[in-house]
Amino acid sequence: MKQHYSILIIGGGNAGISVAAKLLLKRKTLDIAIIEPSDKHYYQPAWTLVGGGAFDIHKTVRPEASVMPKGVSWIQDRVEQFFPEDRKVQTLSGATYSYDWMIVAAGIQLDWDKVEGLKASIGKHGVCSNYAFDYAPYTYTCIKQIKPGQTAIFTSPSTPVKCGGAPQKIMYLAADYFRKKGILPQVNVHFYSGGTKIFGVPKYAEALQKLVDQYGIGLHFHHDLISIDGANQVATFLVHEADNREHKVDVPFDMIHVVPPQSAPDFVKRSPLADAQGWLDVDQHTLQHKRFPEIFGIGDVTNTPNAKTGAAVRKQAPVLVENLLALMDHKPMTASYNGYSSCPIVAGYGKLILAEFDYDNHPMETFPFNQAKPRWSMWVLKKYILPWLYWHRILKGTI
User: Fold this and answer.
1) d(C-alpha 46, C-alpha 253), whole Å
2) In sequence order, which residues have a C-beta less than 8 Å from that of residue 232 and are 6 or more positions away?
3) DSSP assignment, residue 7?
4) Are residues 192 and 279 in the same domain?
5) Which residues are identified as catalytic?
6) Alpha carbon distance 14, 24 (integer Å)
7) In 3D, which of 19, 50, 38, 4 has the Cα closest to residue 325?
């Protein structure tokens, strides 16, 4: 395999595959390689529905080779180091690849180890998470086993997470399941979040608060999960007080859905490409790296202040492609990303709130009705239409 490519893409997830496909649709002769270690490709947005027993986990995975765009060289390896001054990267195998242009689409890292005892407990003792293919089905097992008088806890860390609404989506599904069984008033459902509010966009926050009230869910903000004693079913949270003081609180549970803390991948964190917090340091509108003009970033790995969702990637990809091709043609960049993101928030079985918003947390709604109202039509969009669009259109670069 050759060692130099015109365009080198780091990561073969949604962002890397879709941007490569879009580039080739614009110019089919482009010399592009994708470095991606995994031999499987996942449609992760459906894992919430898997955890609620409403989607088949096996329909969320396909071979990576089946989504790799024709005309792209796939380097099945893992990047370990960036050498941007020399326009080179080094991989785990020890190979070195050089480039004229590079797109970093490395995604986000799940820091399971940041919660003491989590890795030892996950998948048993009522400890579940929809944030991994192997664990999502166990969430539904836990929900079905809850009895009157028991406690179901749902957590969200203070770090950025992919699909910021996902920690709540499974909670509303679980509460609706308990309601359908007639045990909701006897089940203690609680949301423990390291954040400060239920949602950043006031319009949708108001709608979610109504859901919380309807289901009788207890809200606890400024609570970061720091350890789990699975055998004894006790979760320990670090509580951040208003005066910057902190204390710990132990909370017993019968089931706990954990969203692990998340961060940029370690190989990005320790590289010259990272900002002070470890994220890829790009201009939030052009997606060009702030210090290395031949490098672009897309998706969850960047420090753009938008919600980290697949919908954001879909709007970022055409901006990146247009700006990169302009630079390759020695023209000025004119495309700009406005921070658009979308979060389909499952409100229960057959009900969904479609939150769409920009950098300023202003709603940017697609449909001519109030999307803050839970609707069956939006549930159909999430369960049937979006998965089809992902496999057949988004990864092909056609939307």
Assistant:
1) 26
2) none
3) E
4) no
5) 163, 343
6) 16
7) 19
Helix (H, G, I), strand (E, B) or coil at 86: helix
**Contact between residue 23 and residue 324 where contact means Cβ atoms under 8 Å apart:** yes
What are the φ/ψ torsions at residue 363 (nearest 5 degrees)?
A: -60, 140
Closest CA to 68 of 96, 89, 46, 40: 40
Asked whether residue 257 falls in the same domain as residue 280, the answer is no
H helix count then E strand count, the chain? 11, 21
Tell which of 239, 262, 285 closes a domain: 262
CATH of residue 274's domain is: 3.50.50.60
As given in the structure block, the two tokens for residue 36 are: 């991606």
pLDDT digits (tens, 9 = 90+) for 142-174: 999 999 999 999 999 999 999 999 999 999 999
Same domain, 177 and 286: no
Instruction: Determine the average pLDDT of the residues in 100-105.
Output: 99
Q: What pLDDT shows up at residue 1?
A: 75
* Total domain count, the chain: 2
Residue 259 near residue 157 (C-beta atoms within 8 A): yes
Strand partners, 240: 246
CB of 363 within 8 A of CB of 356?
Answer: yes
Q: What are phi and psi of 34, to 5 degrees?
A: -115, 125
Q: Which two tokens stand for residue 371?
A: 């999307």
Query: Which of 113, 124, 111 lies closest to 230 in space, CA to CA?
Result: 124
CA distance 301 to 103: 11
Task: Tally the C-alpha atoms within 13 A of residue 18's C-alpha that lie toward its C-beta.
Answer: 26
* Structure token pair of residue 243: 């005066």
Residue 357 has a CB neighbour count (10 Å cut-off) of 22
Domain boundary among 335, 357, 382: 335
SS3 of 149-186: CCEEEEEECCCCCECCCHHHHHHHHHHHHHHHHCCHHH
Calculate mean pLDDT across residues 373-388.
98
In a domain, 289, yes or no: yes
Domain span at residue 167 reads: 111-262
Strand 262-263 with 151-156, pairing: unpaired
How is 358-375 classified by DSSP, letter by letter?
-TT--B--SSSS-TTS-B
Whole-prediction pTM:
0.97
Question: Looking at the domain assignment, is residue 82 inside a domain?
Answer: yes
CA distances from 227 to 114, 121, 131 (A): 8, 10, 17
